[in-house]
Write a structure and sequence with these properties.
single chain, mainly alpha, Na+/H+ antiporter like fold
Length: about 450
């Protein structure tokens, strides 16, 4: 769906360099200049967007996306970063991982365990139910879509987006249990969606699917991801402790970089969920003083918060400006009307059905109707669906009928439509809804 060329800004840099040196730069220098020019434009546009978001009092990720839309298809001297490029993959993977890690830092492990049942329900059977509801609706709305292809679209749209949800929850502090459920679900349901996605692709490519290996692979990803995250998080806690072996205590915030990269890489290398590992690493590092009380002086801080929050903001900037720049509005326009019908099902039927069904199975916690309504509305789409949609470009799938040849383009258009709709409609209205339902923490300023 997307067509790319070498960034024109690199030509400008190359010309200047030629004038200075009298010779053409090496190819590697040209690539570096291209990357520098891209990142400069992205960050400047994002900084302007962040300032406007602060003035307008709306979630910043919305204006980051709009900034990408403006500098992408609408600015002739800059071409979007290619979706399959290493730069794009690095920004998306590390950015989403660090945002998950930073979200985990603020959560209490005891609270997560206390709500583990509802988190598991939303993240596993909840994703399955969402897949069938959205996939079934897609089949009805697009009759030429094969059933397997419709389910594939359903699972691509199923995961919620931590890159959007966590920043919004930082701005609008809802009750602790809502925050824990929303953030934890967004970390765990990525794994579920990825496994279902792979299972459907395997079924389409091989014509059959063995249930037990699929279930075993899913449980293995969860177990390995959790174990790697917990291990790396606790080890980092030891190294920033107030004991003699707290070698990195003075640079604790910088240590978060190898913690995120290391937990993701280790878990992925061992066959686990890298995103889950980074989230769990954040949870265990954030709770290391409670888990290892003898290692820490309660009167001293850990110096983790400021750096991690700033870097998470940079990650959000990069992710959503790049995503916005890659939107092809011609393809979106082609499927606009039926796509909006599918979005209505996605927002007003699928998510509420998941929330009300599975929260009904967790009666002991006393979830109120207001909390269920809020959770039904807060399910923004972003990084993971975009990544899964992008993965289709490298997968060979054969569909029968007219949809077969343009399936990748169709999915990309629907996914970006979901990103636009959920960000512009749900993300913008989330602060208002939280206040309307009176779910803001009592000790928080309502204007936060």
């Amino acid at each position: 769906m997307f067509k790319y060329s070498t960034c024109a800004m690199s030509t400008i840099y190359s010309s200047i360099l030629n004038l200075i040196t009298g010779a053409a730069p090496p190819a590697s220098t040209d690539l570096i200049m291209t990357a520098f020019s891209d990142f400069t434009i992205i960050l400047v546009a994002a900084l302007i967007a962040a300032r406007l978001a602060s003035l307008l009092k709306i979630p910043d990720v919305i204006l980051f996306l709009v900034a990408g839309v403006i500098i992408g298809p609408m600015v002739p001297f800059w071409v979007p970063i290619e979706e399959s490029s290493n730069i794009n993959q690095m920004v998306i993977i590390f950015g989403a991982s660090y945002i998950l890690f930073q979200g985990g830092l603020d959560l209490k492990l005891k609270t997560i365990i206390h709500y583990a049942w509802i988190i598991a329900l939303l993240a596993i059977p909840g994703v399955l139910l969402s897949t069938f509801l959205v996939g079934g609706a897609a089949k009805l709305i697009f009759p030429i879509l094969p059933c397997a292809a419709a389910l594939l679209l359903g699972v691509i749209l199923a995961p919620t987006d931590p890159a959007t949800l966590i920043p919004i929850l930082k701005q609008v502090r809802v009750s602790e249990r809502l925050e824990v459920v929303i953030e934890s679900e967004s970390a765990f349901n990525d794994t579920t969606a990825a496994v279902i996605f792979i299972s459907i692709v395997t079924l389409l490519q091989q014509g059959h699917l063995s249930l037990f290996p699929a279930v075993g692979g899913f449980l293995g990803q969860l177990f390995i991801g959790f174990g790697c995250g917990a291990g790396v998080g606790l080890l980092a806690g030891v190294f920033i402790s107030h004991r003699p072996f707290g070698f990195f205590r003075e640079v604790a915030s910088i240590l978060t970089l190898p913690v995120v990269a290391g937990s993701y890489t280790l878990a992925t290398w061992l066959g686990g969920s890298g995103y889950l590992a980074t989230f769990i690493a954040g949870v265990f590092l954030g709770n290391c003083r409670e888990l290892m009380p003898s290692y820490f002086d309660r009167k001293k801080g850990l110096n983790l918060e400021i750096f991690s929050m700033d870097l998470a903001v940079i990650c959000r900037m990069m992710i959503f400006v790049i995503l916005g720049s890659q939107i092809d509005f011609l393809a979106v326009r082609e499927y606009l009307l039926p796509g909006l019908v599918l979005m209505a099902v996605f927002i007003f039927i699928s998510r509420p059905a998941v929330v009300f069904l599975f929260f009904g199975l967790d009666r002991k916690k006393g979830w109120t109707i207001k909390e269920k309504l809020f959770l039904s509305w807060v399910r923004e789409t972003g990084v993971m669906p975009a990544a899964l949609a992008g993965a289709l470009a490298s997968i060979s799938l054969n569909f029968s009928g007219r949809m077969g040849g343009i399936y990748d383009e169709f999915v990309q258009a629907i996914v970006f439509m979901a990103i636009l709709v959920t960000l512009l409609v749900q993300a913008m209205s989330t602060p208002w809804l939280a206040r309307k339902l009176k779910l803001i923490r009592e000790n928080e300023n309502e204007g936060a």
